[in-house]
Amino acid sequence: MTDQGGPARSESTDSRWAGGVILLLSGPNLSLLGRRQPEIYGRETLADHEETARQAADRGGYRLEVLQSDHEGELVEAIHGARGRCAGVIINAGALSHSSWSLHDALAAFPGPSVELHLSNPAAREPFRHRSVLAPVVDGSVAGFGGLGYRLAVEAIIALVGTRGQMP
After folding, report:
1. At 68, which helix (H) or strand (E)?
2. Mutual angle of helices 46-59 and 148-164, in 10-degree steps
3. H helix intervals, 60-98
4. Whose CA is closest to 65, among 32, 22, 34?
5. CA separation for the pair 87, 92 (Å, rounded)
6. Catalytic residue (one of 41, 49, 104, 150)
7. Are 45 and 33 in contact (CB under 8 A)?
């Protein structure tokens, strides 16, 4: 669903989710998944990965909200908007993982658990991808597992919320 020409945002309104909301953010170029470099990122689309994450959230009693944007500021605003509203944040920031200090600062200010997600293994790729500026402020990273990473990231958020007893 698109909000007045803005970034694609989708959320379920089913009231059966007692655990709260997990926000899944996808950064620049991820709307091209399935068509862009399938030898690296696979043939599944972003919608396929979102559905995998949604099913994992549903099994854990959570509702998944998703947002994809090619604009850094919209991702920052989404993280700010998650404060006090979302149990956790999962972010696949794509190349912004290596350069976005504004995402770093927004995630540092988010009080719940957060997980950085990558389909490929950045450490096994070009040298500029080896450093994540998000890594110091997220609880952990899931990388290199392809589409399986979406389920693993959701399960990590659920486990971290359970361990901390943290709800918005």
Report:
1. strand 63-68
2. 30
3. 72-82
4. 22
5. 17
6. 41
7. yes
Side-chain half-sphere CA neighbours of 109 within 13 A: 14
The letter for the amino acid at 155 is: E
pLDDT in tens, 47-95: 999 999 999 999 999 999 999 999 999 999 999 999 999 999 999 999 8
Cβ atoms of residues 131 and 165 within 8 Å: no
Residue 143 zone, left/alpha/beta (φ > 0; ψ -120 to 50; rest): beta
- Contact (CB, 8 A) for 64 and 157: no
Active site residue 150: no
CB 166 within 8 A of CB 19: no
Judge residue 18's burial from the number of C-beta atoms within 10 Å of its C-beta, 0-12 exposed, 13-18 middle, 19 or more buried. Answer: exposed
- Tell me the CATH class for 11-164: alpha beta
Q: How many Å apart are CA 167 and CA 157, to the nearest integer?
A: 12
What's the Cα-to-Cα distance from 92 to each of 61, 121, 138, 162, rounded to whole Å? 22, 12, 12, 22
Pairing of strands 140-143, 88-92: unpaired
* Residue 41 annotated among the catalytic residues of the structure: yes
Q: Of the residues 104, 118, 130, 150, which is catalytic? A: 118
pLDDT digits over 139-160, tens only? Answer: 999 988 989 999 999 999 999 9
